[in-house]
Amino acid sequence: xxxDRRILIASGLALTAGPSVARARSLPPAPxxxxxGAATAPVQFVVYASPSCGHCAHWWTTELPAIRKTFxxxxxxxxxxxxxxxxxxxxxxxGFLLARRVPGKYxxxxxxVFQKRETIFESGRLWEGLQxxxxxxxxxxxxxxxxMNDTKALDGVNTRFRRAIGxxxxxxxxxxxxxxxxxxxxxxxxxxxxxFALAAKG
Length: 202
Fold this sequence. Notes:
Elements: E1 34-36, E2 43-49, H1 54-62, H2 64-72, E3 77-83, H3 89-101, H4 106-123, H5 126-136, H6 141-148, H7 151-166, E4 175-178, E5 181-183, H8 189-201
Parallel strand pairs: 2-3
Antiparallel strand pairs: 1-3, 2-4, 4-5
């Protein structure tokens, strides 16, 4: 299962095992952050996820909609999304490149990639699957190919990936932080409601 050879591969970025460090510090804004919700929200919910991660796709499509409706869209929680690469890295990177190429629709495109991930993987036609999503959002074949060969954008993805590993010590996806503290429990609406309430109280 491979992408068409034309796509740029995020190479040389193998995950490195590092110590799992529990800490409760703020996570300041970082270049490339994608944000949903009010800047004044009392709770910061940082999510690291990858388009090629099945667990991420499941959480994003089944749990996030209710969380977004209840907390993010109501100004109670601000979601900060940070990109991470999981095998096959080239698919994950391509998904991010595509999402950033469609103006103003990053989260919509990313959601579509998550929704169609399993079908695309089962088909083994990763390039064509992403290209179909690009067309769904109005990109021509030439525009899609240009997005996939945007070396500056790919450098940004790789830089964010290295920072996630080196600075935030992210090892798996999805990974969550609530007001700077790593959260490793259930990430459904019921569990996060309690965590968000505690975080809002400081």
